[in-house]
């Protein structure tokens, strides 16, 4: 069994162990940490575009797991997020008479199921297996949302079901048209005919629902705002990224000939509206978690605003690097922000921004983590978010895309307005509120994620080179890669 397989099998094995362990499942986190960290490092060190065919079957019958640039970028970032959230949740979701038992027994198996599905989604090239992966993630996400609000979870479930059916319909159409749904094979035989375009249209619509791009975002704010902090962190940082990565593979790897300017500008326009709408809604909130949830709606918009900039560039490396760096920086910063917000609200004994008065003195580490995450989301130097948005802005100006450039600037200013507000309240007042001393790891986890998000900005040219290596153009041949045993 290759390390690529183990990245999927290991979390599934821990899911079973978590079910069997019941209330003691939180003790499994220290066991999985070195295993998954080691496998992620091993994945990065594999030869470029190394792959493994599960079961030894040749394509198109076999299932290809490919360690391409996107996988080597997203899997380690995902591992960091899951490990930080797991350490945080060990002390947050303790079993006991206070109501933590049911949450603990639900959260841990679902976290490992989501982890396995996410890794499978980043590694596989088969569109049907991507459907299986995204359903694993959606199932876990619905269960996590139900920990906070059953109504929000049911709403999420019904909307996600529509997205799943649309995506599966598109996969069936592609199989009928090409007798395969593997992206590495479709890249060589795909053609922009009517059946292909219709399949791509319904698949894109389904994945946009999963990704919560405006105006298909209705399920996201209620689900993220009501869930416990560890669940909110995973929903915002992880779940929406898988649909985005599948769309990247569809439009830029499997069917680049079908990615006409009209389609790209439609996605870019929806992304621009998401930035403005999500930011405006975040500015209107008087509760902290809904503010952070609407920030997710806005930040997702940048990922799709980048689509026409990548497709329209003569040399798309800069726009591509900006898009993918934003995905990773947002993943880290948003997980850090939701974890920090959970600690701040628990200390404030309320959910309103006005309740945060004086928390900067009472819990400086947590407020620092929130502030560093905000710096990255606002796109201020020297963060990873700044580098990502600078690359996108440079690409927009270079292509004369004035509207996208304006949205990038205005979105950053609006983010500064709504994210500075809770920070200003936390630093206000002269008294120090009494705060219960919790487990040190709960404060360390969001700080570590936020520091990494900032550190991405110091990587400079090295980070851009790595991101360019993750592009579909880094490997000019689209033939299936040679399997690694």
What does this structure look like?
This protein has 485 residues and is mostly helical. The chain folds into 2 domains: 1-254, no CATH class; 260-478, no CATH class. The chain is built from 19 helices and 2 strands. The protein has helices spanning 3-21, 29-45, 69-92, 100-123, 127-146, 150-178, 183-189, 194-211, 220-226, 229-254, 261-284, 288-312, 317-348, 359-362, 364-378, 384-398, 402-427, 440-459, 461-469; strands at 50-54, 63-67. It has a two-stranded antiparallel sheet. A hairpin with an 8-residue loop joins strand 1 and strand 2. The longest helix has 32 residues, at 317-348. The protein is globular, with a radius of gyration of 21 Å. The model is unreliable at 476-485 (pLDDT under 50).
Concise summary:
The protein is an all-alpha fold and 485 residues long.
Question: What's the arrangement of secondary structure elements?
Answer:
Layout (H helix, E strand, L loop, with lengths): L2 H19 L7 H17 L4 E5 L8 E5 L1 H24 L7 H24 L3 H20 L3 H29 L4 H7 L4 H18 L8 H7 L2 H26 L6 H24 L3 H25 L4 H32 L10 H4 L1 H15 L5 H15 L3 H26 L12 H20 L1 H9 L16
Task: Give short descriptive properties of this protein.
single chain; 485 residues; mainly alpha; two-stranded antiparallel sheet; 19 helices; 2 strands; 2% strand; globular; disordered C terminus
What spatial order of strands do you see in the largest sheet? Answer: 1-2
Backbone shape: globular
CA gyration radius, whole angstroms: 21 Å
The domain tally reads 2
Residue runs with pLDDT of under 50 for 5 or more positions: 476-485
State the secondary-structure class: mainly alpha
Major sheet, described briefly? Answer: 2 strands, antiparallel
Strand tally is 2
| Ends apart, CA distance between termini | 7 Å
Number of helix segments? 19
Mean pLDDT: 85
């Amino acid at each position: 069994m290759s390390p690529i397989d183990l990245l999927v099998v290991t979390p599934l094995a821990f899911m079973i162990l978590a079910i069997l362990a019941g209330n003691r499942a939180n003790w499994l986190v220290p066991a999985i940490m070195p295993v998954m960290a080691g496998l992620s490092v091993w994945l990065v060190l594999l030869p470029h575009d190394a792959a493994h065919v599960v079961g030894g079957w040749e394509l198109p019958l076999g299932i290809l797991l490919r360690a391409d640039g996107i996988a080597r970028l997203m899997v380690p970032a995902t591992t960091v997020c899951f490990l930080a959230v797991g350490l945080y949740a060990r002390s947050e979701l303790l079993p006991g008479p206070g109501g933590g038992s049911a949450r603990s027994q639900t959260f841990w198996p679902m976290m490992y199921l989501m982890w396995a599905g996410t890794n499978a989604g980043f590694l596989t090239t088969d569109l049907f297996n991507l459907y299986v992966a995204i359903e694993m993630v959606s199932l876990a996400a619905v269960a996590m949302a139900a920990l906070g609000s059953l109504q929000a979870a049911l709403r999420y479930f019904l909307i996600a079901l529509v997205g799943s059916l649309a995506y599966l319909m598109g996969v069936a159409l592609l199989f009928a048209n090409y007798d395969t749904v593997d992206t590495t094979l479709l890249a060589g035989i795909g053609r922009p005919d009517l059946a292909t375009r219709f399949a791509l249209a319904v698949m894109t619509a389904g994945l946009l629902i999963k990704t919560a791009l405006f105006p298909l975002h209705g399920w996201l704010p209620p689900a993220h705002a009501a869930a416990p902090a560890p669940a909110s962190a995973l929903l915002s940082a992880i779940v929406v990224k898988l649909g985005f990565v599948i769309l990247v593979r569809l439009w830029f790897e499997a069917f680049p000939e079908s990615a006409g300017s009209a389609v790209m500008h439609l996605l870019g326009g929806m992304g621009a509206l998401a930035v403005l709408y999500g930011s405006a809604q975040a500015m209107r909130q008087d509760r902290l978690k809904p503010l952070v949830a609407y920030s997710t709606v806005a930040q997702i918009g940048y990922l799709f605003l980048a689509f026409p900039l990548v497709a329209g560039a003569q040399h798309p490396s800069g726009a591509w690097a900006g898009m993918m760096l934003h995905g990773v920086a947002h993943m880290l910063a948003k997980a850090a922000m939701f974890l920090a917000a959970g600690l701040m609200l628990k200390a404030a004994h309320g959910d309103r921004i006005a309740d945060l008065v004086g928390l900067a003195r009472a819990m400086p580490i947590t407020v620092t983590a929130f502030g560093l995450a905000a710096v990255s989301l606002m796109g201020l130097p020297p963060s990873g978010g700044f580098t990502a948005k600078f690359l996108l802005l440079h690409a927009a100006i270079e292509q004369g895309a004035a509207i996208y450039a304006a949205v990038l600037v205005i979105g950053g200013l609006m983010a500064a307005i709504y994210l500075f507000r809770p920070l200003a309240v936390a630093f206000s007042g002269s008294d120090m509120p009494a705060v219960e001393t919790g487990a040190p790891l709960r404060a360390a986890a969001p700080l570590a994620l936020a520091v990494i998000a900032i550190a991405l900005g110091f990587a400079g040219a090295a980070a851009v080179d790595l991101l360019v290596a993750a592009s579909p153009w880094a490997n000019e041949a689209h033939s299936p890669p040679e399997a690694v045993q």
